[in-house]
Amino acid sequence: MVAHIGDIIELECVADSSANPEGGGYTISASQTITAYKEDVAQTTTLQNQLLVQSPKDPKKLVPGDKVVQIFNVGAPQFSLDPKFVNAYYPPGGHQDEGRILPHIVFNDPHIPWLRDAGLTDWSKNPVSGAPSSPPGASWSGRNKVPWMGILVLKPEDLTVDADTAGLLGLAKLDSWTKSIPDKPPTDLAYSMNVSDFMALTSRVRVETGLSIGSEDYNALMTSTEQTRAIFPTKDQILKVFSLNGAGADLTPLNSLQMMSHVRHVNNKGLPDYDPLGTSYFSVIVSNMTGSVMEIQPTTHIVHLVSIEHLDTTITQGLKGPSDRIALISLFSWNYRCIPESVDFATTLEALAANAEPLRAPDGLLQHLSTAIGIEVDQEKKAGKLALLSRLQHGYTISRWRDAVGEVGIAFNRGPLVPKHSKSRPQSDKTVVPHEPSSDWPAVSMTGKDYHIFDTSVGVMDATYGSAWSLGKLMAISDPTFTAALMRIRSRANTMGASATLMEVNNITDKQTILGSTDKAIARTHELISQGSCGPVARLNPPPRTAGPKTLCHAEVKPILREKTMAAVQARSLSTAGTVWTGLDGAPAADSDWEVISNWIHDTLYLANIPGKHRTKTGAELCGLVLTRSSPHSPLPVPGPLLPLRIS
């Protein structure tokens, strides 16, 4: 016989109170099931945790008696909440945030929001629609329940109680009212009192719902000296927050609070409240109310965590009482300042659309210059101003420039992100702006001067492309990784190009061809030996005696060198798949240096690492370097160097 002892240990827990199964008295008992097998037949017996009593037949023997049960009580807060349960809340007390924020509070205990039933209606106990189906013997009534607490976000005037209202509510006779200074109520407008005083108020939440009048629990509630705090919002506010359309008939908003509370498992390792022996579970309640989003200046808001226990019955039976306000239990509170939204997406886009201008001199200055051109009498100056206006409209700015002889003057400059207008005249006309790169420009320049364009209409140099060349050179030599990769691949390309050129012009067979013909040469040698060939050793292909080998200095060799060097560069730029490596096909580059160079070029084409002042001009440069005037009402003069300087 094989026995398994302690295979099943059952704990049965029964609550004494059916009204509040989460909190109250409980009994617990233990039993153990032992299973033994004899010839594959299971024999099971269950042992209860029982008292040993004297046997009625033999007083000297002890026999099992009644089942032993342990009675214990689960304490659940109802009228107050220990601040130690609160882990954090947002917005922080005394701080400020935008009105669209939903205040919320986090508890250290994951069970706090569901320690009590929110009411007696079916939806206050049932889970959310669509919850998992209950397995046999299991209950999902504790899953996704409506919490017994909620968060209200109100302004101070919403909770301010005057003397007449205090008299109607029965608040005026309490010490918390009589001892407070009339013009200085509590900062959170919550008044302290005993539970019995709260029960005596004429308009309040009926927390005694479900208790029989005269019962022990009812009498204990009516005479309790436990301290609590109450707030007095208007009945209309309560109906608007917790009932649909504020009518009081449909309590869907109150029911939906189950969606605003949840348990969160947090990995808080390394944080001050980390407990290696415990589990980091927290409960969270989020308010279904925001602050006022229509405020135009910072406004104080009061957040109250209130008990909504039996608020459903209180609303459905009608908010009774002579006052237009109702008392709610406040469990926790804090204040914060609600500020207007600093950034509104729709307003921001509307403002951008209303004030949008191209990246050039402001339209106001251009319009002022256009007006000055209209009243200009001197035709030569008028032509110069028109040319200047055209440049400024196309996004050009005027920069300080030093020419080759050291004289300081001015030059036109244009960034890559400024507007570009379609050309109306042939590109051969040097007065067309903006200029496109010319086909006769050299591919290589040592100084960038080859890319300067002289504007004959105003006698000013256009240094846009020259400055771009200088910027690219400076960025390249400032990047040691790119510079080293460029030098290595350039050296390899030149070496490969020179070697291929010399082999071609001197008719030198490459190693691959020589090694490929080794078998034929050996076979031919054996053939000659077998034929009895003898005599002095001689070359099969004697070198020509007419001239020596050609070098790279020969004029006819240079075009071939250029071609072979370009072929070497193209070979180094391929990927292992045989195509030009761009980093988009997934195949690795054949040369790691080309990978560095290609990435640098593509990043630069997308303006990466280019200083912002080279991309666009700042407002100071657009306004201050273009035009100046002595007073707001004086005409805009054209600076002296901008006068037409005709060069024939």
Short note summarizing the structure:
The chain is α+β, with helices and mostly antiparallel strands and 648 residues long. It contains 19 helices and 20 strands.
Span between N and C termini? 123 Å
Would you tell me the structural class of the helices and strands? Answer: alpha+beta
Q: List unreliable stretches of 5+ residues.
A: 1-21, 129-134, 424-428, 622-648
Radius of gyration: 46 Å
- DSSP E strands, number: 20
Helical content (DSSP H or I, runs of 4+): 25-40%
Tell me about the biggest sheet?
6 strands, mixed
Any idea what the shape is? Answer: flat
Strand content: 15-25%
Total tally of structural domains: 4
Overall average residue pLDDT: 79
Number of helices: 19
Question: Can you walk through the features of this model?
Answer:
With 648 residues, the protein is an alpha+beta fold. It folds into four domains: 73 residues, no CATH class; 227 residues, no CATH class; 130 residues, no CATH class; 108 residues, no CATH class. The protein contains 19 helices and 20 strands. Helix 10 runs antiparallel to helix 11, helix 13 packs across helix 16 and helix 13 crosses helix 17. The longest helix has 26 residues. The N terminus and C terminus are likely disordered.
Quick tags:
single chain, 648 residues, alpha+beta, 4 domains, 6-stranded mixed beta sheet, 4-stranded antiparallel beta sheet, 20 strands, flat, disordered N terminus, disordered C terminus
